[in-house]
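This section describes the prediction task in plain terms. A model, or a person checking by hand, is given the sequence of a single protein chain and must write out its three-dimensional structure as a string of tokens. No templates, partner chains or ligands are provided. The sample shown here is typical of the held-out split.
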Amino acid sequence: MSIEIKAPTFPESVADGTVATWHKKPGEPVQRDELLVDIETDKVVLEVVAPADGTLKNVLKEEGDVVLSDEVLAVFVAGEVAAAPAAEASAPAAAEPAAAGDVIMSPAARKIAEENGVAASAIAATGKDGRVTKEDVVNHLKSAPKAAPAAAPAKAAAPAAKAPVIPEGDRIEKRVPMTRLRATIARRLVEAQQNAAMLTTYNEVNMKPVMDLRAKYKDQFEKVHGVKLGFMSFFVKAATEALKRFPAVNASIDGNDMVYHGYQDIGVAVSTERGLVVPILRDTDGMGLAEIESTIGDYAGRARDGKLGIDEMQGGTFTITNGGTFGSLMSTPILNPPQTAIMGMHKIQERPMAVNGQVVILPMMYLALSYDHRMIDGKEAVQFLVAIKDLLEDPARLLLDI
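The expected answer:
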């Protein structure tokens, strides 16, 4: 029985997708729920799996082709798996080389392997059904330098033959097309700078009170809630309280209209191998520190595995990004349209500070608030950032709502 393999149904905000990787070839036996193809959209990678046991008959959309919602990608024939293993059994010796050249890899693993010029057949697979995982590629790359000295003599004999083709000393370049996600990030960042009157205000916060509170209760917190107490939950709660006090910072622009939101949906930027994604924490006013930490942890893990749903990254009234995890001391974050503001956290750096006429070494963090000056006045932006500073430097205010 022939079955049409179709692209997933895209949400209204996603116009189309791109065929990223075919994991099966025509004529290859496939088991039910086995991954057939990855479809990359502007936000996530969607997986299309086999509807039943059978064989992929022919592919209608090749890798790199643009596809619409529910468009037919291939034709699948159900119930023909039994014939394929018999053919393989009759010629086992011939089957092995073919399998080596057709290694199953996850999208993340394939990307890392291609960027580092590693042959898929050289990587030891530990995933299900012989699949090469991202961890397999990383482990292979870590161990590669140890094997390099043994291979060096073989390479030394080759330059004489290859010298006329690749002259010694040439600088190598590699041209790689942008992924859909990277192209979307680029377009949105340029639009944000072109279409908004973006301005950034800075302040600094003494992190010692939060660090002392965290050090005192982190073990008990993890024991009770089953999740580690980080810094991001404090910033989310402080931002939520500040957004309630300054509604313009929690607003968005829709044409000539200013939309004021009566709720706080805060996006937390997460860096992945494919690019930056911003999953949304919904109704943060009703979330406790433990719920915020566990939700962020879940989002971060699934973002890096490409498992976030599109609905989990749509909307949002305010965004927090943390360049401090990579060592950034100060930066200017770019707006996430149609939001009117974004806050950047940075590295905690010990610095000498004047406290009551005395020089004291304190763990300080620079905060940056980029905002759309068309909607937010400088006074509101500065007061918003000062409110966050005050709440973090005296965390009891978060509990007392003062």
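For orientation: The two ends are 67 Å apart (CA to CA).
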